[in-house]
Write a structure and sequence with these properties.
The protein is an all-alpha fold. The protein has one domain. 73% of the residues lie in helices and 0% in strands. It contains 14 helices and no strands. The protein is globular, with a radius of gyration of 20 Å.
Length: 335
């Protein structure tokens, strides 16, 4: 095995660990939410979400500064613009995601969040003024069926629960955020600085939302007196999001986009596997009522349908985005 092949397989191994870590993050994040609800009873689910998110992104800023130095906070004009766009989408997505996680299981949340993978080719087709490719329509159908099974939809009334509905909305915002990363106007931006700016904006906004929505005078500060909650939030940040991100920035360039997309689809599978034993262990440690999840045929079938939709999307990726000059010269969406 030559050095290039060995490095490629190392990258695949690291990205698999990232997917596992992100899957585990859903379980830890759900535990932190349950612990928080017990500490500030009576507070709204929106306050719970915002107050839980603020320290996560603050940790992200700290870690990025530790890795890249304070220069990571020195952004140019277009970098601040991209950071603002990404932060706006991420704030909305994260708020809906964490609010929704209070009304559904971590495994269902992880699978539904993968819906963003299918949406990105649709945004790319719209940006290119082209019809989406045939496999995209098949992927959407598979996702709809998978969501129905995961959410236990009554097909006669076509009603989703609050948690599942909010997860779908979150996936829409996440897909727009990720699509903006490859926008031609942002091509020259430095990703680590743009991300640091995004994290900084999100930290400030989540603090403001939490302070605005709190009902108790000291609710914002109460959870910090409980060390188990602090560790859960720190774990959700490092294990579930910030830690994997730093590794992904380093290693993803060594694999193809298709390989990376397929690997990331494994995240919900790890969530499902950990969900059958880890919640009970966290309950014993924290004293929070967080029962183990039960794997049902509907969850397995729904998860497989969504994973199949994601795989189909990765095997037929969207066409590269065209420039404004190209769109003006050839606006026909069928070409």
């Amino acid at each position: 095995m030559n050095a290039s092949t060995k490095l490629h397989w190392q990258a695949i191994g690291v990205l698999v660990l990232c997917a596992a870590s992100q899957g585990l993050g859903f379980i830890i994040g759900k535990a932190s939410l349950l612990a928080q609800v017990a500490l500030v009873p009576g507070e709204s689910s929106w306050f719970i979400a915002a107050q839980n998110l603020a320290p996560r992104f603050a940790v992200g800023v700290i870690l990025l500064v530790a890795v890249y130095g304070f220069r990571v906070l020195q952004l140019g004009r277009t970098e601040w613009l991209q950071a603002g766009v990404m932060a706006s989408c991420s704030i909305a997505g994260c708020m809906f995601q964490l609010d929704g996680m209070q009304f559904t299981t971590a495994s269902v949340a992880a699978f539904i969040t993968q819906f963003f993978v299918v949406l990105i080719p649709i945004w790319a087709a719209l940006a290119n003024r082209r019809w989406p490719r045939g496999p995209v329509y098949c992927s959407v159908l598979l996702v709809v069926l998978g969501l129905g099974l995961l959410a236990g939809v009554d097909w006669r009334t076509m009603q989703l629960g609050r948690g599942e509905t909010e997860m779908i909305i979150a996936a829409v915002f996440f897909s727009v955020m990720l699509f903006s990363i490859n926008w031609p106007g942002f091509a020259a931006n430095r990703p680590e600085r743009t991300t640091a700016g995004m994290f900084l904006i999100e930290t400030l906004i989540f603090v403001l939302i939490a302070l605005w929505t709190q009902q108790g005078e000291d609710s914002f500060f109460v959870p910090w007196h409980e060390w188990s909650w602090s560790l859960l939030v720190l774990g959700a940040a490092i294990v579930g999001s910030i830690g994997p991100f730093i590794l992904i920035v380093r290693w993803q360039r060594l694999v193809t986009p298709t390989e990376a997309g397929m690997i990331y689809c494994l995240g919900p599978v790890f969530t499902l596997g950990c969900g059958v034993f880890l919640p009970g262990m966290l309950s014993q440690w924290t004293g929070v009522d967080y029962p183990n999840e039960t794997i049902t045929a509907s969850i397995i079938a729904g998860g497989l349908l969504i994973l199949a939709a994601n795989a189909l999307t990765q095997l037929w990726p969207p066409r590269p985005m065209r420039s404004a000059r190209d769109l003006s010269a050839n606006p026909n969406p069928a070409q």
